[in-house]
TrEMBL record:
This is Predicted N-formylglutamate amidohydrolase. InterPro entries: N-FG_amidohydro (IPR007709), UCP029730 (IPR011227). GO terms for molecular function: hydrolase activity. It comes from Paracoccus homiensis. Keywords: Hydrolase.
Amino acid sequence: MVNQQWSPIWFRKTNGAAPIVLICEHAAHVIPEDFGDMGLDDAARLSHAAWDIGAETVAAEMSRILDAPLLSCGVSRLLYDCNRPPTAADCIPPRSEVFDIPGNRDLSETDIAGRCMLIHDPFHHAATQLIDLQMQRVGGPVSIVTIHSFTAVYHGQPRDTQLGFLFRDRAALSQAALRVERAKGRFRAELNAPYSAKDGVTYSIVRHAENRGLPTTMIEIRNDLIDNAGGARDMAAHLADTILQATRTGGGI
């Protein structure tokens, strides 16, 4: 029996006044005691497979700078990946990057449905409510920005991309952010890199923004740039400015 003394929902700045909502689906590496150790050692539990290293620190600082509400997921994506629909084969991964996840092997339909009910459903319900409330507060549409990080080396291959701005169908905010980044000239930024919608990574922005006709972008940050507090805060200030400029120059409402 699950004795749920934990929550998949972390809020910050719910009284923020900006016409922006931030979401960080892979904020934590927390595995509640209800799930045991999932058969994982410390290296796996603290690795990028378990969470997006640095992303929550960036998101929290962006929330402060922008005065924008933030919703983060408070448990590891190894339990349930909140940026995947329940129909996705990798929403509860039996293997992630180089790590096997014994606690996710041979799960029954009941087990999978239970994880979805405990993690996916409340998280995305909270996202919908937060967006609705922010639209009421500002009296109109809001931009939805999700914050992620990626590894500098993936399956042995170095990645040159440092920042990615992702979308599926609504490109305006991502394109505006890329223009701002290229004008700044500090980081190597690209559209739909190192992933794109074909990789199945745009679930949250499609569900909460594109399907509602709202401006959106999914920010991917190479995690060697934000794997310490100083780097993460610096990146947050940089990206907060980028998003503000982008929303004011054709990418926003």
